[in-house]
Design brief:
Blueprint (H helix, E strand, L loop, with lengths): L4 H25 L8 H13 L3 H17 L4 H20 L9 H21 L7 H12 L3 H19 L2 H23 L4 E7 L3 H12 L3 E11 L2 E14 L3 H11 L4 E6 L14 H11 L3
Antiparallel strand pairs: 1-3, 1-4, 2-3
């Protein structure tokens, strides 16, 4: 089987993710008895209560989730996840970091940062280091519950059990670690630049288009609709302006539209991933002029 350059880069990044996650565990969380959420958290809890090898626990607890994944997600993800989880277990077993700090707040924050970075990089490359996400996908497909809500419920139960069996302080610091971890995962999955999408319907759509292109310098897409229903009754033949902008430009966009049409209908929505188009660089002045010529009415 021929291994492409992209595949090598992908597995190199997965290895980096595994190393970062293991640093978070061995240099911060494990020496101080802190937990994370999901399968990793269960393995750490078992280690704290029974001194059972965390690497073995991680693999054993992951098996039911990987079996579930076989019927839930693609076989490629299952294969890569098996390799990733075994790799994480091996590196955790071999690593022998000295604790960096005994400050509990720093442990919770930096342990979460390293662990979140590792998991986030792994997810971006099509694998998981924790099986609880697979459980969330399965229940979502079967019963329609939110994946995030399922994982949150799963981890809430875990931290409550931790509070009763170990201490409430450990449970609270572990919750902080989990919150930091999930936030860092989001950064690595979605990127550090936060973009949103907007759909605008206005009676003065041509003027709105021209002003957005001219003042924002961002690309737009215009859809035609044949009929709509609203406060003014039936509306026929109009434009829907669609654009992607950086979150920092939201207020400026609203100001541009409101200055032209205060009754414009605007829908704002989160954007998880974008490629191509004009969003990391703005239109040049010549492009803006050309866009304005195109949108001018005949």
């Amino acid at each position: 089987m021929k291994i492409t350059t992209n595949a090598l880069q992908e597995y190199a990044q997965i290895l980096l993710g595994i190393v970062l996650a293991s640093i978070g565990l061995k240099a911060f969380l494990l020496p101080n008895g802190f937990l994370d959420g999901g399968v990793t958290g269960i393995a750490i809890l078992i280690n704290e209560l029974y001194d059972f090898n965390i690497s073995i626990s991680l693999i054993l607890i992951s098996i039911p989730f990987l079996i579930l994944a076989w019927f839930t997600v693609s076989k490629t993800i299952v294969f890569k996840s098996v390799i990733s989880i075994i790799g994480l277990a091996i590196i955790i077993h071999l690593e022998n970091f000295m604790p960096i700090t005994d400050d509990k707040l720093l442990i919770a924050i930096f342990g979460g940062i390293f662990l979140g970075a590792g998991i986030g990089i792994a997810i971006r490359n099509g694998t998981v280091l924790d099986g609880s996400e697979i459980l969330g996908i399965y229940i979502n497909n079967r019963f329609g519950f939110s994946i995030g809500g399922i994982i949150l419920f799963f981890n809430t139960i875990l931290f409550i059990i931790t509070g009763f069996l170990i201490s409430m302080e450990t449970a609270m610091y572990s919750t902080l670690t989990y919150l930091v971890t999930t936030r860092v995962i989001d950064f690595f999955i979605k990127g550090f630049e936060d973009y949103v999408g907007m759909m605008i319907i206005s009676k003065s759509s041509i003027e709105v288009e021209q002003n957005i292109v001219q003042e924002m310098g961002t690309g737009i897409t215009v859809y035609k609709f044949s009929r709509g229903y609203g406060n003014s009754g039936i509306q026929k033949d109009g434009d829907i302006i669609h654009l992607i902008i950086n979150r920092i430009d939201i207020r400026k966009t609203y100001n541009i539209v409101n200055a032209i049409d205060k009754e414009a209908f605007i829908v704002e929505f989160d954007v998880n991933n974008i490629t191509g188009g004009v969003f990391r660089r703005y239109l040049s002045k010549s492009q803006r002029k050309l866009s304005n010529e195109i949108t001018k009415p005949e």
